[in-house]
C-alpha cells in the first residue's frame, strides 16, 4: 500500500517584512504539525532577515517581480501606486505559474505531494483565481487587525468613500466613532489620488469565494468586529498572535544583538523607553530631531532602533553621545519588549508592533504615520486603552513637537490603568494560543481540514 504523502501547501506573503513575519510564524507552526511548506517570496522580499534559518520542512523559493523596473510617478510628482500594483501583478502571476509548472509536484510517488492549498497575503486577492485554476484551496491571510479589515470592507462596499469627509465622525457597525484622520490613507505628497485606499479595499474582492480566511488577531481583543465580519464571511478565523503560537522559534541572528542585550541587562526594571518605527516608515529629519529631544527631556534610558546609519548621523550630537541611551539599526523586537527593563514602547503602530506590545504587556506611545497605523493608534488609545497617541488631522503633515512627545511619554510611563489593561490583554493573548484557546483551536481546525483534502 502506498504511504500517504505529507500534506503540502504554498505560502505566498507580500514582499514586505511586516507581511512576511506573521505568515512565517504561522508556517513554522504548521511545519511542526507535519505540514510541508513551500514559501514563495517575490524578489523585493528576498533579503528579509526573517528568512534566515528556516526549518527543513519549509522550502524557500524566490520568484521575480517588478522590483528591477523604475518607480513610476504621476504628473503631480506623487508615486503612481496604481500602475505599480498592476505591474507587480502582471509580472508576478506568470512567474508564479511557471514556478509551479517547473516543480512537477505529485508526478512521482517519491516526490513532494501536489499542494493542497495556497495561503496568500490578502493584499494579493487575485491569487484566489490562481489557486482555483491550479486546483488548490484558497486561504487569504490578513496581516492587519480586524478593525482595519472592517474599514476595508466598508470602503470596498462604498459605505465609506475617498476622499473622506472631515466635518463629522464616521459611525460604522462594530467600530468606535472614527474621524477622517483615523482612516486609511497615505500623505498627499505620496498618494494624492488614494491608490492605497483602493488597493486595501480590494482585499474584499471575491472574498466570499475563499475556502478559509485567516486573520492575525485573537478573538477577545476584537470580539464585536470579528463576530460582525464572520456573519458576512463565515470562513473567517482569528489565528493570532502568530508569533506566540507554540513551538515558534523566532530567533534571527544579528551582530548587534549581544551589545543591546547586555545593555538592557544592565538597566533597572521599567527604566527604558524602547523606540522603533518599523521597517518601512520614515520620518523627516525635523521629526526625528524632535523625538531625540523628547527622549533627552524624559531623563530616562532609551533604546532606539534607527535603520539607516546616515539617519543616525543626522541626529543631534547630544542624543548620539548620551550615556542614557543606545542607538542600534536592528533588534529582535519581541525579545526587547519582553525584557523587564523596558517601560514603554514608542512605535509607528504597524499591526505587528502593536500586536506584540499588546501580547507582551507593554504600554504604548503611539506615533502613527499612515495607512492602518492611524486606525491602530485610535484603537490603542480608545478601545484597548493601553497607550496615548500623538494625533494629527487627515492630510496634515504636522511635526509633533518635543514637549508634546515628552508629555505623552510621561503619561504612559506613569499610567497605572494603562499597565493594568496591558496585563489583561497579555493574559488573553497567551490564553488564545494555549491548548483550548480560540486561536489555537482555529489553527488546528485548519490543519485537520488540510489532512482531509483528497
Structure description:
By secondary structure, the chain is of the alpha/beta class. The chain folds into 2 domains: 8-249 and 433-452, Glycogen Phosphorylase B (Rossmann fold); 257-429, Rossmann fold, CATH 3.40.50. Helix content is 40%, strand content 13%. It contains 17 helices and 13 strands. The strands form 2 sheets. It has a 7-stranded parallel sheet with strand order 3-2-1-4-5-6-7, with helices on both faces. Strands 10-9-8-11-12-13 form a 6-stranded parallel sheet, with helices on both faces. Strand 8, helix 9 and strand 9 (301-305) form a beta-alpha-beta unit. The model has no long low-confidence stretch (mean pLDDT 91).
How far apart the termini lie comes to: 16 Å
Instruction: Kindly report the CATH topology of the largest domain.
Output: Rossmann fold
Helix vs. strand class = alpha/beta
Write down the overall geometry.
globular
* Uncertain runs: none
Q: Please provide the count of β strands.
A: 13
Strand order of the largest sheet: 3-2-1-4-5-6-7
Oligomeric category: single chain
* Largest sheet composition: 7 strands, parallel
The CATH architecture of the largest domain would be 3-Layer(aba) Sandwich
Please tally the helical runs, counting DSSP H or I stretches of 4 or more residues: 17
Order of helices and strands: EHEEHEHEHHHEHEHEHEHHEHEHEHEHHH
Determine Rg (CA atoms, Å).
22 Å
How many structural domains does the protein architecture include?
2
Percent range for helical residues? 40-55%
Beta-strand portion reads 5-15%
Average residue-wise pLDDT: 91
CATH superfamily name of the largest domain?
A: Glycogen Phosphorylase B
CATH class category of the largest domain: Alpha Beta
